[in-house]
Request: fold
Amino acid sequence: MKIIQTKWLAVLCAAAMSVGLLVGCGQPRQDATSDTIRLAYVNWAEGVAVTHLMTVLLEDMGYNVEATMADVAPIYSSVAQGNQDIMIETWLPHTHAAYFERFGNQVELISTWYDEARIGLVVPEFVTIDSIADMNQYRDQFNGRITGIDAGAGIMASAENAIESYGLDFELLASSEAAMTAALQNAIDNGDWIVVTGWSPHWKFARFDLKYLEDPHGDFGATELVHSAARLGFSADFPEVAALFQNMTFNAEEIGSLMDIMDGVPDGGEERAVRSWIEDNAELVASWQP
Reply:
């Protein structure tokens, strides 16, 4: 498997030309008969885990896999242009609604692999408030900050909306998933209050005692569906691969165990971890085979 990891520049064309990625402003791929499948994913725990899992399954089917990590916006653009084949996850109807409104007619949803997803503001269980509406009263305990993730993530836009909707006197700090979870663990270890942009499925809910703050204004939506989306025509070009994605589904325990086994795996150890998970979930994986 070839893994390309990059932080996309604001101008997608310039980024693509500067680092030579197979994304951006070029012509759509013309090699539909190739045995190479190009996967694009965001550096979020569930996306990383599913990307490595699907890479192993596709390689076992005889395909070559190129996996590219990037932010949501350039992934959508790249798949829409046909320069990547599949984006591993898009959250609908709320989280990625703005991206889907722009690019939805240029991609095809080929699977729904998780149907119990959720986003919101998350705090440790020991925090004594239960609603976003009460946050201003405890601004000092939270140090006036909401610890976020990537600036382009849909959950960050929802958090900005919540700050305005609830009149919160809080600063939203953009960081990364890794930085957010590190800050969360540090606060919990010290008994400090913290509020983060959180989502499930995610391993942090198994590792820490956490809760979502109630969202009476509905700024974070309700239950989300996690889909995989492909370039137009992909299912016709690679029906066997499309069928594998269409058959792939997880419940909370299954995706949680996959993320848990992948968390903290050193570079080069991903395939071994994935194959261990496949062995433990052989019946499930067999049910996905086209």
User: Anything to note?
Assistant: The two ends are 21 Å apart (CA to CA). Residues 45-60 form the longest helix (16 residues). The beta strands are 2-5, 36-41, 64-69, 86-92, 107-124, 145-147, 171-173, 196-200, 210-212, 224-231. The chain is about 40% helix and 20% strand.
